[in-house]
Amino acid sequence: MQTTNAVNGANYLTYQGRYKGLFGWIFSTDHKRIGLLYLYSIATMFAMGVMLGLAMKFELLAPGKTIMDAQTYNATFTVHGVIMIFMVVVPGLPAVFGNILMPIMIGAKDVAFPKLNLLSWWLYVLGVVLVLAALFFGPGSPDTGWTFYAPYSFKTGTNMLPAIFGAFVLGFSSILTGLNFLVTIHRLRCPGMKWTKLPLFVWTLYGTAWIQLLATPVVGITLVLVALERVFGVGIFDPALGGDPILYQHLFWIYSHPAVYIMILPAMGAISEIIPTFSQKHIFGYKAIIASTMAIAFVGYLVWGHHMYTAGMSGTAQYYFSLLTFIVAIPSAIKVFNWISTMYKGSINIQTPFYWAISFIFVFMIGGLSGLVLGSLATDVYVHDTAFVVAHFHYIVFGGTGFAFFAAMHYWFPKIFGRMYDKTWANVGWLIFFIGFMALYTPMFYLGMMGMPRRYYDYLEEFHGGNILSTFGSWVLATGLLIIVVNLIRSARTGAPADANPWHSKTLEWTVPSPPPVLNFDKEPVIGENEGPYNYD
Amino acid sequence: MKNQQLIKVLLLCVWVTCYVMPGFSQAVVNPAATDDDVEIGIVEHLDAYLPDSISLINEAGEQVWLADLIDKPTVLNFVYFRCPGICSPLMEGVADVMDRSDLIPGKDYQVLTISFDPGETIDLGVRKKNNYLNLMNNKEKVEEAKTGWKFFVSDSASIVRATNATGFKYKKNGNEYLHAASLTVLSPDGKITRYLNGITFLPFEWKMAMVEASKGQSGPTINKVLRFCFSYDPVGQTYVFNVTKISATIILFFAVILLLYLVLKPKRRLKSI
Lengths: 537, 273
Prior knowledge:
The complex is a heterodimer of chains A (about 525) and B (about 270). Chain A is mainly α and about 525 residues long. Chain A has one domain (about 35-510): Cytochrome C Oxidase, Chain A. Helices cover about 65% and strands about 0% of the residues of chain A. Chain A has a two-stranded antiparallel ribbon with strand order 1-2. The longest helix of chain A is centred in the middle third of the chain and has 35 residues, at about 245-280. Chain B has about 270 residues and is an alpha+beta fold. In chain B, the strands form four sheets. Chain B has a five-stranded mixed sheet, sandwiched between helices. In chain B, helix 1 (about 1-25) packs antiparallel against helix 8. The longest helix of chain B has 26 residues, at about 240-265. The interface of A and B includes residues 182, 191, 224 and 235 of A.
């Protein structure tokens, strides 16, 4: 094992390549630098999304107009959704941690197509610029909701086209990343790195890459069709031109439901790395987790109709979609059982990443179980389009992917930056964040059950109490977030130098110095017959 | 090199997808098409004359002859009033161009909107007319259009004669009709001088069509792209479903090729790092 500390040595952060300064980053084809570029871009967009979210919660502090009118609120939740989904959560873990760590975890020196990798990031930036252009130029911010539902998306007078085109470009970025990862995992594994020795994070990236490759073109094509309809009046979704708006919903959700698994699978992968490390025990049911990962990736394609129970479809189709939705819950539950079984009788070392991981399991379970309420036909009709859906969605996407992102950040931070963060402040930040999260979203389950619709800037007096608690929770969450971010930024600059393997983990990335050298390995690693990513015994 | 090829393939896919899909929802008018070739759409009969034997029911419920009405450049507009599809956007387009054009309806030209559904009554037509007049902003134009834009219904025999003469091909499908959005311009003596396709019209092309019609000159159809009004038909699998099927097939085809390539082609080892 190479245990040298390389903060001041030649590593990917300090390496002087063909270009200097900023150009040395934005034109770098090093997968680790590209991963960090993604991290900084995604963090910036996340900050914007959080601001918009806080503004929405502030508006809902009291009934009636508080700080914005109805149209502004519509635009706010639309832009919040577009930013958070297309620019933060979908690229999130694969683009950041997948890029930085996946090649090292399989013993490769880079991804299969480094230039394509850089192009993906540039496309991401282009997509972001296009969407932001929709906000600042033209006849007003998009106000259709992040789903761009027809017929709103071609009837509204607001600036839809740049936003749609931006989302399309972001989709392309996602496809290229997926393709790159697929080829890398198939082609560039080091000797001895069999499929059954791959770390689970890599397995989840593999499943995710297939979804990116197969599902993302659907939304790309759909958005092109909306653009064609808006510009040329081609009748596809507009009933006035002979189109069918329900078709739009089908096409959109054929992508967007698998996209939820693009978001959650790498999150599950990161948790599957963290739990064995901090339990110092072999992951329970390695192959079961792989099977459940691929099952989620496959069955996840077939459940999109559960978003549309009230939109109009045949009873038979509803039954099948409902049944499949219940089936897709099984692999997720398998994973939860595996994580808990891994901890059982392990030497648990409670550190910040572990706090994040166990709180992930907690909120993910609540999110998952509330998903079954929405997957059941009768109960879905009752809570459809209420705050209950918003609560479920945020428990899964923010509680799931968001918590896993912070878990991964605190887990791999010493590897990425070569420095350790202040653990006390990291724990304080986690605790405040967790309390804020629960206070923010739990009341929305109750509000939804009581009948409060989503996407309204106003509500009845009877919903006031729950909304006050929720808005208060948003402030607590923001405080926790601020502590976490400040601690991480400070530590990246001035933290204590970190060892190559501070958590005593077994995967390959911990065998190289922190931060890793430019070409990752001095000599190509070879995995022995008895070695494996979780062989702690 | 490999990257370049990959990018080329991706660009080709995007191009093919973008090119193929609009083709399912529109059709280009083929001027050489005959009546037998086209089931739904327009077969141009430029320079042909309308027969005299077309009778209509006007807004007052009186029977009139189409030939007697044509004494100035005339736009024939075939729709059916309860159409859920393209007829309303078409008539909105007509109202819009009448509003914006400096020609005076009723004096310089007239528009005759005729329902090709023999089951419809003129009451509905009168209500529709008021709706479309309300869309016009110019108050003077509204007054002029009251006399210059006339709505009619007719019997099935006259409808067949009129639509056959103009080459307007439509088909009944359940309770609705499949048809194209197009206007036929006639000279004061009843000769077909131009077809205006689409649902939006420029004041300039409108004026040109009327001026030429007043001289009896026929002109080529500028907008060759016809828009069709297909009703949604899940059993008959309309064009929209073909779009999704073809797209899905292309995506899955490339995915399978990629998987086979990755699995079957031997892994090339990097020499050293």
